[in-house]
Design goal:
It is built from 7 helices and 7 strands. The protein is of the alpha/beta class. A 7-stranded mixed sheet has the order 1-7-6-5-2-3-4, with helices on both faces. A hairpin with a 3-residue loop joins strand 5 and strand 6. The protein is globular, with a radius of gyration of 26 Å.
């Protein structure tokens, strides 16, 4: 009697064993795929953030692989909410869209400037009144060649969010100021959920077009 006729496969295994092998192989493939799939981004940062030195982090971003030089400042190198926020920004590879009401934190400005120098497309929307305050980093970033647009009406441009590579959303109550980072009770949420990111992308593009200087209106000057 042939193997097939007595319930054996041509390879000598019962059909049930073949099914078990196939199921195990499918599970192994699924496990490898899950291992390779990027982990979802879900992070919550609370402020105020403990003072820390970010020189090593920023220096590595400016010159990857270069020998680290010791920083003479007395602040510790630590994992803080601010350092995590800077790392999230520095992870950008293609684009960074910023919609920030008040921006005076030098460390965050350095991170944004480094991304611009690295070839990342940076666009920044801000509030017209607050961009002119003493200590604002907007002028420095604009002078560096970063595209900046602002409102032209009486209400505030009060958003505080950033989008990294059109994929990761950073949003919350935090203004990007030293005062808010070091002294205020604030929160920042970091997610890559497409259902959350897309509405913010749409809002950014809408505001970016609305604040296009070509659309500005100026009062007529009477002679």
């Amino acid at each position: 009697m042939s193997p097939v006729s007595c319930g054996m496969s041509p390879g000598g295994l019962p059909p049930a064993s073949l099914l078990a092998v196939a199921a195990a192989a499918a599970l192994a493939v699924a496990a490898v795929a899950a291992w390779r799939r990027p982990r979802p981004v879900r992070e919550v940062l609370f402020f105020p953030s403990r003072p820390c030195c970010l020189e090593a982090l920023l220096a590595e971003a400016a010159a990857p692989g270069a020998p680290a030089r010791p920083c003479p400042c007395p602040l510790p190198r630590a994992d803080t909410s601010l350092s995590r926020l800077v790392r999230r920004l520095l992870s950008a590879r293609r684009s960074l869209d910023l919609c920030i009401f008040s921006f005076s934190c030098p460390q965050l400005a350095r991170a944004v400037h480094l991304l611009h120098r690295r070839g990342v497309r940076v666009r920044l929307v801000t509030d017209a009144q607050y961009m002119g305050l003493h200590g604002s980093q907007i002028g420095r970033l604009r002078h560096a060649g970063i595209q900046v647009r602002h409102d032209q009406h009486s209400g505030y441009m009060h958003h505080k969010f950033a989008i990294v590579d059109r994929r990761v959303l950073i949003t919350g109550s935090l203004n990007w100021t030293t005062q808010a980072i070091q002294s205020n009770r604030e929160n920042v949420l970091v997610v890559d959920d497409a259902a959350c990111v897309k509405p913010f992308l749409d809002e950014f593009e809408r505001i970016w077009e609305e604040y296009n200087p070509a659309n500005y209106s100026f009062p007529k000057v009477s002679n």
